[in-house]
Design brief:
alpha/beta; Cytidine Deaminase, domain 2; 6-stranded mixed β-sheet
């Protein structure tokens, strides 16, 4: 009936949302009970959207029936509604817009509130997502500093102020013009420190009044509040477009499994284990090939997106110098050769966490034993492309 009414919109006003009751009544009162063609057409468009969503949800549900244990349905029906048009995309010559899932309660970055600052750019939104995903890995106060979706500094501490200082010290040069993420409400002390640096965006669950007073002096600084509990069924999938189609996968939400084991003669100490777990969490959010060096609850060096793993190792050590000594290393995938282990030993790295699974695992284990390095195999990798 709704579809039939919408087809005859020139003679029928079809109202599908309670939010339209007031405007329709007001329009009727102002026009002697007759809606103009534009108002009727706008109501018809909303009606067709309503029936399209309804039919898509039915088709989506039915398509999964009788497919056995198949995780993904044979057909996907996607509905997005535009939040805003952006000034441009990744580059000024590209047009862009921001959409959110339609027909459901907004959540995540698409439901974020901007408290102040310039309008968000395409790249800002991408970096905010990267910061928010990483910072939610930790329950203790944490800070991450993002540049081009990679963390140049991440740290945990007993308070946000300390976590920020530790994250900033990891790579002060790269922190300039960054996007920052915090997993707790930003306080005045933290805000005072952050305001000393040029930052594009800060994303957090909230900002207290004192912090807002400090940060409000930075008129162009974008402050974004995200509800950490926002979730939806669609959040179980990651979607990437390719020409002519899309790739769909589950989120990489697992950090370890039953196969985690110490592969070397020496076992990591308690402090090393703590830093290994921290580095492993961060490595999951670094573009592959990813190497993360960590010490005392903060990153000291990050090697990201290199074509060879040993190059990522060298870059992480270069970034960390001279603080690589006594740090631990996380690798998002296995070491294909022992050269990465040898480089780590030269830099004074004491423990390594990696998935294992290389044909030359025994060579890397032997190299670690020769250097007195403790090495843990997780049996799980964290490629991020």
């Amino acid at each position: 009936m709704i579809r039939a009414a919408a087809k005859n919109f020139q003679d029928v006003a079809v109202v599908t949302s309670p939010g339209d009751y007031g405007p329709v009544l007001l329009a009727l009162q102002e026009s002697a009970g007759i809606l103009d063609r534009k108002a009727l057409f706008d109501l018809a468009k909303k009606a067709f959207l309503c029936t399209a969503r309804y039919d898509a949800q039915i088709a989506q549900h039915l398509s999964g029936i009788g497919t056995g244990n198949e995780r993904f349905p044979p057909n996907l029906f996607m509905d997005f509604e535009r939040i805003e048009s952006l000034r441009y995309g990744e580059n000024p010559h590209q047009r862009a817009a921001f959409y959110r899932w339609g027909g459901q309660k907004p959540y995540g970055i698409a439901a974020a509130r901007q408290l102040q600052g310039k309008e968000l750019s395409y790249n800002n939104i991408v970096d905010i997502e990267a910061a928010w995903n990483l910072i939610q890995e930790f329950s203790e106060p944490a800070c991450c500093i993002i540049k081009h979706t990679n963390p140049c500094g991440t740290a945990v501490a007993d308070c946000l102020h300390s976590a920020y200082l530790k994250a900033y010290e990891a790579d002060p040069i790269s922190a300039f013009g960054s996007v920052m993420g915090f997993n707790k409400t930003v306080d005045q002390q933290t805000a005072v420190e952050v305001s000393k640096l040029f930052v594009e965006v800060i994303v957090a669950p909230g900002f207290n009044n004192e912090a807002m007073e400090v940060l409000s002096t930075r008129k162009n600084l974008r402050l974004i509040v995200v509800n950490p509990k926002g979730v939806a069924d669609t959040d179980e999938y990651e979607i990437k477009r390719v020409s002519g189609g899309i790739l769909v996968q589950e989120h990489d939400s697992t950090l370890s499994d039953a196969e985690t084991r110490v592969a070397t003669d020496r076992k990591p100490s308690d402090d090393e284990r703590h830093d290994l777990e921290f580095a492993w969490r961060v490595a999951k959010h670094v573009k592959s090939n990813a190497i993360v060096l960590a010490k005392e609850g903060r990153t000291v060096g990050v090697g990201a997106g290199q074509m060879s793993r040993v190059d990522s190792v060298k870059i992480s050590i270069q970034k960390a110098h001279p603080t690589s000594k006594g740090s631990v290393m996380a690798s998002d995938a296995f070491f294909p050769f022992r050269d990465g282990i040898d480089e780590a030993a030269k830099a004074g790295i004491t423990a390594i966490i990696q998935p294992g699974g290389s044909l030359k695992d025994q060579e890397t284990i032997q190299a670690a034993n020769e250097h007195g390095i403790a090495m843990v195999f997780t049996g799980l990798r964290h490629f991020k492309h």
